[in-house]
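Below: protein 1.
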Amino acid sequence: MALFLKKFILNLLFPVICVGCRRETPNSAYLCARCFKKLKFYGKTTGLNLKFVDELNVAGDYDNRPLAGLIKLLKFNAVPEAGTALVAWLTLFWQGPAALKPPNLLVIPIPLAARRRQRRGFNQAEIIARGLANNFDYEISLELIKIKNTRAQSGLNAKGRSSNLTGAFKWQGPRPIKRDILLIDDIATTGATLEAAAETLKLAGAQKIIALVAAKG
């Protein structure tokens, strides 16, 4: 009851605004039902040539305003509640492909370096990964860690993004992994982050690596 009252009072004082239409929304997911329907699945090929990621699944396009708004809230404005709508939408997207994938996928989110995670308070990819793992009854692992404080990828060209992530990740779980992996991130632009993480996982004995991202940047 106390938690309900706290949320009720906070919603009165600080109403949640939909990232799509900028109107107040009655839920705390930061996306109203009308704008949720405007989220469009990605209907193009990515054009990315990835070596260590065996399959890349892109749910949407960053040019879609409601989708970009959710990702920005989650990633840059530190609003974890925005992940609720993202998980719901990614669940709809993944329902079709999931039927064609191995049932025992190990879900691994792209990790943040300790300093950045502490500053943000959470890892946005982990929020998405936990939601999907719960909805599809997958096992999740947080044993892929980021050991290098890299520069922000935005603003770097493809070569710079790749070199920026050299030696950035480490697998601290059992070896060899011997599992098919579902690698989760919020957005892919050149695929450099996914590739660096996938290379680390392959070297640790992972089998097929399937990546799933919310948007193509």
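Below: protein 2.
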Amino acid sequence: MKEDLSLRLTALRKYYGYTQEELAIKLGVTRQAIIKWEQGETSPSIDYIKALCDLYDISIDDLLNFDIPIEKLFKEKKQDNYVNIDEDGLHVKEGDTEVHIDSSGVHVYDGDNEKYNGYSKGYRNAKTKLVSNIIDISSILIFVVIYLILGFTLHENDFGFITFWPILFYSLVPSSLYKAIVKKNFTKFNIIFLILGTYLLVGMYGETTNAFNGWAYPALMFIIIPIYYSLANAFKNLMYYKNKINRKDKTIDLSD
């Protein structure tokens, strides 16, 4: 039964044009739950079966009656075609194809796949890369100068040179912050080097001054890394679906 139900759930989802992530959000479950249903590893509870039937406008009896061919469950789909022009740009959809032209470039969606206009994306990426390289070079020079100043200023027993060399890790952080802000994707922020540099800096200072109880307590800051990336990924997904919903809301329906 699980295998038959899994095939029907997969066919219905694809027919109505939902991705696994979109369907998961509508039902309030994880994408992994949808995957397990469609692979036949588990079956949805009766509450989720009711929700699926409401979504697809079919009865529970028809969904679970495996003598009924899946094609009989498909309803006539209304094409959500539109053209919309607003302060954000031009937005057009016909069938499975969407085109969005705005200040960030030309975005072409073909079903679940997104493609970008080569010129717009290339120009934007080239500009971002150029600015990022300038920030990298500037940051390296700045932190090298800071390291040398500390080294020569705190020169007794080479305390400055021995203790503060980890600040050189910070030179790779500013450009990643720039990319994260420009792309509105904070998973690109290099928090690993930020935490690693801080850990080594605190550890070296603690070792030379007998502070912080050695290297043990500073190691706790590595817990920040998985927490940060979890939050950054959640924010990234939230922004993606928010933008997608906004595009659908700002439309002129041409289907009639």
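Residues 120-245 form one domain.
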